[in-house]
Amino acid sequence: MNRNRPVVRWLLLAVVILSFSAASFSQIAVGVSVRVGPPPLPIYAQPLCPGPGYFWTPGYWGWNDDGGYYWVPGTWVVAPVGMLWTPGYWGWGGGLYAWHAGYWGPHIGFYGGINYGFGYTGVGFVGGEWRGGAFYYNRYVTNVSVTSVTHVYNRSVVVNNTTTSFNGGEGGVAARPTAQEESAAREPHTAPLAEQTQHENMASQNRQNFASENHGRPAVAATAKAGDFSGRSAVPARNAGGEYHAPAMSPKEARVGSTPANKANSNEGFRPFTKPNSTSTGANGTGSNSRAPSATSSSENNSKPAGHAAESNPSRQNNSRAAQQHKSSPPPRKQKAPKEDHHKGR
Questions:
Q1: DSSP 8-state code for residue 271
Q2: Does residue 18 come out as left (phi exceeding 0), alpha (psi in the -120 to 50 range) or beta?
Q3: Helices (H) and strands (E) in the chain, counts
Q4: Phi, psi of 211 (to 5 degrees)
Q5: What is the pLDDT of residue 338?
Q6: 3-class SS at 147?
Q7: 44, 239 in Cβ contact below 8 A?
Q8: How far apart, in whole angstroms, are the C-alpha atoms of residue 48 and residue 223?
């Protein structure tokens, strides 16, 4: 019996370590939880890509316990070589809206089926792809100038013209992860870059970014570089994605708990990333988009190049159903969709 005690102790220690690892991973899977839903995604143009190696990270609604939802502008950041950005998303479940933080990884994972635009159609990413150590941009859905970026191609994409900003529940996007996306979620991930975190923090300090102030139409909807909110770099929203409804409760009443597990964009639990050895990495990991009936491609260089900024919503290609709107209090109520405005990019 005495000889077995060390073995038992090691087994107990292993169980404790595994428990902490699972808890750490859950912190990156789910962030803030609130009782009111985010406003629809605003309609805006994508700023010009600053140069080679920059990767587009779409805008989203962040949460502040004092002011509620605030807009984090979409922006370009220098991507780690071989890695792709899976955006975060709000998901409905158990009477709450929970934030699932974004991450960098070798393949695009599930982001709620949200149509963030500019290549993020709701499934995968069709805005570009890695070919060896260089990133090639699809000019059909990204605003890239060939004078500053030479690695480009043109591939047509049909995009749903929705502005719904959350997954699940009444009025939300009805999407579930595919086997491919679930596999991507189990791969090693890295946290948002320091400049992304700083960009979000800066956005939360400007009252004009809060939905209570801009009613879903932020004055700074996107920026050319992270943290640069200057007039020359900033792009205003063209329109709100739908009618804004003020929540029936205060942000502090809407917030659920305040524990370490409720941190949006927590860096804990991320595993180190090893660059893939393949010479060509598609945006969804295989070069194809198995669950995206809304995204189609034609032969390269047969489509119109994007000579100007693309609009985030809606797409000029698709006459799909109008966007579902909702009231920012659970359960959300459907509203009449705004008039469609057809522009390039989403």
A1: P
A2: alpha
A3: 5, 18
A4: -60, -30
A5: 39
A6: coil
A7: no
A8: 9
